[in-house]
Amino acid sequence: MTEIIDGNAVAEDVRGDVSDAVDALAESDVTPTLATVLMSDDPASETYVSMKQNDCEEVGIDTVDVELDSDADAAELYDTIDELNADDDVNGILVQMPVPDHVDDRRVLRSIDPEKDVDGLHPENIGRLVAGDARYKPCTPHGIQRLLEAAEVETEGKEAVVVGRSRLVGKPMANLFIQYGDGGNATTTVCHSRTEDLAAKTREADILVAAAGVPEMIDGSMIGEGAVVIDVGINQVDADNEKGYELVGDVDFDSAKEQASAITPVPGGVGPMTRAMLLYNTVNAAAVQSGVESALD
Ligand code: NAD
């Protein structure tokens, strides 16, 4: 029987721990605060930001909501980040990506105070992650580590194959797999758009993480028997329903399930974990900035 790894259930556990940690911080008069910055008219980005704000409210994290016109000067966004960096009441800053083309997204990520960079994407925080001294692990790969742990999937000595080399998912995921310690010690291969014979690589995986953003590109024939399959993809494809579209992963779930020993669904797999780990990082940020010990590890 293939195990369907339930991201909603594991995320609920993480949120419970976060909520307890928020209560513990309240005893020291600390209320974690996350600032979200949206500079986009894209309905998906708007939805993501409002979901993140609702998640915060549920666990007792305060939010500051900044919205900028998508055609505003790039300087407005840089100034907003400077102001939030200087605001002692703000512990975490999340700029919803992607930003419009006229904004330099690398500069945006570099401008956020590394201590408030709860997405873990500032070069300093990426450097610390690579060095094995992570401050905030990027939310999606961190969430995947938690999912694997909850499903009791051993990573040590296993072949981990990551499809995708983005700054957001693929690169940090691969780096976490090669770190010493729990959730690491895996022999790791990173595949990408220039990889030759992708299927030969993915078939070798004991743990396969698909983060390419290509709908259902990994099917059962590309998966070795008994592999654990983590589907990061969220792709909108046309569908004959009221909305006119549906969301599918990078994995063809039905054929992959025939081969895998465990697999994450889309939706309800990695997505809820990404959101939960943002809360986790925000609480840890508030603790560090207030000099109070966090109840989270
Ligand atoms: P990206 O576009 O920045 O990177 C995609 C990567 O996949 C690139 O490195 C590219 O080299 C590789 N790639 C593209 N086509 C390929 C192919 N045919 N074969 C092999 N490799 C290929 O995307 P991203 O930000 O890493 O996101 C990847 C997917 O994950 C998207 O669908 C995104 O929506 C989704 N996502 C989901 C979550 C979540 O919480 N579930 C979080 C972040 C991203």
TrEMBL record:
Biological-process GO terms, alphabetical: L-histidine biosynthetic process; methionine biosynthetic process; purine nucleotide biosynthetic process; tetrahydrofolate interconversion
Tetrahydrofolate dehydrogenase/cyclohydrolase catalytic domain location: 5-119
GO terms of molecular function: methenyltetrahydrofolate cyclohydrolase activity; methylenetetrahydrofolate dehydrogenase (NADP+) activity
GO cellular component: cytosol
Keyword tags: Amino-acid biosynthesis, Histidine biosynthesis, Hydrolase, Methionine biosynthesis, Multifunctional enzyme, NADP, One-carbon metabolism, Oxidoreductase, Purine biosynthesis
Pathway entry: One-carbon metabolism; tetrahydrofolate interconversion
Domain of life: Archaea
InterPro entries registered for this protein in UniProt: Aminoacid_DH-like_N_sf, NAD(P)-bd_dom_sf, THF_DH/CycHdrlase, THF_DH/CycHdrlase_cat_dom, THF_DH/CycHdrlase_NAD-bd_dom
Catalytic activity: (6R)-5,10-methylene-5,6,7,8-tetrahydrofolate + NADP(+) = (6R)-5,10-methenyltetrahydrofolate + NADPH; (6R)-5,10-methenyltetrahydrofolate + H2O = (6R)-10-formyltetrahydrofolate + H(+)
Residues involved in NADP(+) binding: 164-166, 234
Pfam families hit by this protein: THF_DHG_CYH, THF_DHG_CYH_C
EC number per UniProt: 1.5.1.5, 3.5.4.9
Record domain Tetrahydrofolate dehydrogenase/cyclohydrolase NAD(P)-binding: where: 138-288
Functional note: Catalyzes the oxidation of 5,10-methylenetetrahydrofolate to 5,10-methenyltetrahydrofolate and then the hydrolysis of 5,10-methenyltetrahydrofolate to 10-formyltetrahydrofolate.
Subunit structure: Homodimer.
Family that this chain belongs to: Belongs to the tetrahydrofolate dehydrogenase/cyclohydrolase family.
PANTHER family for the chain: C-1-TETRAHYDROFOLATE SYNTHASE, CYTOPLASMIC, C-1-TETRAHYDROFOLATE SYNTHASE, CYTOPLASMIC-RELATED
Record protein name field: Bifunctional protein FolD
Originating species: Halosimplex pelagicum
